[in-house]
Structures are given as structure tokens and as C-alpha cells.
Amino acid sequence: MAAPTVAVLQSNYIPWKGYFDIIRDADLFVFYDDVQFTKNDWRNRNRIKTPKGTEWITVPVGQDISRLICEVTIPDARWAKVHWKTLSQNYARAPHFAHYRELFESIYLGREWKTLSELNRHLIEAISRELGLATRFADSRDYALQGSASDRLLRLLVKTGAKRYVSGPSARDYLDEAAFAGAGIEVIYKSYEGYPEYPQLHPPFEHRVSIVDVLFNCGARSSEVIWGWR
């Protein structure tokens, strides 16, 4: 099935609202996890709000960086109980925590995750459904890609039948827009500017935290503070 508007991103652990803003813009979202894993990045960690400020929560995946993201395993399952306890302690007083409790409790305590990609994709798709998104999801490994960097991404987009590619703003520094135009694909750079503040526990307000902060504080209004305000 051709996908006129496509977004392609590496999977992140409970990513921030901008990640889901991009998903919403796409007919097809492709997880780009057959690329190099990067240490101390968003792939296996994110930030939440606590009474002491922002705090990192990190999925332990070992020190080896000579792996693709899709090859990263989670050798110790104990992290899941710790993360769920951390989220519960810091968001129990949030107005909509109870609404999402069963969903997240089942993800953290209901099964054991073997790989980082599997965990991230499950969380992202589950949260997307909660946000009412109808975007289809795929995996870059399904497209038998060759090449590297911008050329490899372009090959992926051609195989999906994309007419438009939604990208994060930082890609302006390396995308070969002329090559994309030559393939009949328009590049659209997502802007993360202008997001409104929302009622958030533990001031001062911080935008760059996990999507769980939006869900637990805003509930059914989450879509309004991610894209509805436009």
C-alpha cells in the first residue's frame, strides 16, 4: 500500500510529545532501528518530572555500542519494576494517572522484554492508540535496505511509495533535498516551536520530558497540547 506521507525515526523509550506530533503527521511511520545504537541517547532513556526536578529513567542494555538498535538486548528484567515504581511515586497525584495505570502496569509488570526495539515499539504504538492516532507502523528491516545515511533513507522512502517525508528539524544539516526532490518526494521539516504549557506537577514547567508527563497530567486533553493548539 502506497503511503503518501511517511515519517522515519529511530525508536525511543517513552519519547517526548514531539515524537508523537510527527507520528500524527504521517500516514506511515517507520521504525528505523537497523542503524547504529548510540550510547547515552533517547533510545533507552528519557526524563520525567519529580519534586527534585527532572530525572532520567534508563533501561539498562549494557555497554556495547557496536550494535544496531534492533540488536540491543535487555539482559536484566529488574529495571521494569523499578521504572514502574518510579513513575507511580512521582505521578500518583497527577489527575489522570489512574486512567492509564492499567495500561502501563501491564507493560512494565505483565511481560518480560527481551529487546529494546520490541519494548520501544510496543510502548509507542500503545500510546499512539491512546492519543487516537490512525497512523500505520512498519519496520525498516522489512524493506531490505542498502546504502548508508541519506541515500539509504531515500531508498526506504521510495520503497514505501512516499510522496512527502516528515522529518525532525535537525535533519536540515545533512539531508540531500535535491536527491529527494529528484525522486518526487517533498521534505517537510517538523517545527517543535510553540507548544503550550499545561498543568504540570513540580514546577517550573519543562517541555522536554516523556510523553507520560502529558498523559498523566492532561488525560483526554493530551492531543490538544501536542497538536490541537495549532
Features:
7 strands; 230 residues; alpha/beta; five-stranded parallel beta sheet; 8 helices
Helix content: 25-40%
Total E-strand runs:
7
Q: Judging from the principal axes of the Cα atoms, what is the shape?
A: globular
What composes the largest sheet?
5 strands, parallel
Number of domains: 1
Low-confidence stretches: none
Q: What's the overall average pLDDT, rounded?
A: 95
The share of residues in extended strands comes to: 5-15%
- Indicate the structural class: alpha/beta
Radius of gyration: 18 Å
Q: How do the helices and strands follow one another from N- to C-terminus?
A: EHEEEHHHEHEHEHH
If strands are numbered along the chain, what order do they take across the biggest sheet?
5-2-1-6-7
How many H/I helices?
8
Distance between the termini: 30 Å
Quick structural gist:
The chain is of the alpha/beta class.
Q: Your description of this structure?
A:
- The protein has helices spanning 17-25, 78-91, 97-109, 116-130, 149-160, 177-182, 211-218, 222-228; strands at residues 5-9, 28-31, 45-50, 53-58, 136-139, 164-167, 186-189.
- It is of the alpha/beta class.
- Helix 2 runs antiparallel to helix 3.
Q: What is this structure's SSE topology?
A:
Blueprint: E1 5-9, H1 17-25, E2 28-31, E3 45-50, E4 53-58, H2 78-91, H3 97-109, H4 116-130, E5 136-139, H5 149-160, E6 164-167, H6 177-182, E7 186-189, H7 211-218, H8 222-228
Parallel strand pairs: 1-2, 1-6, 2-5, 6-7
Antiparallel strand pairs: 3-4
Helix pairs in contact: 2-3
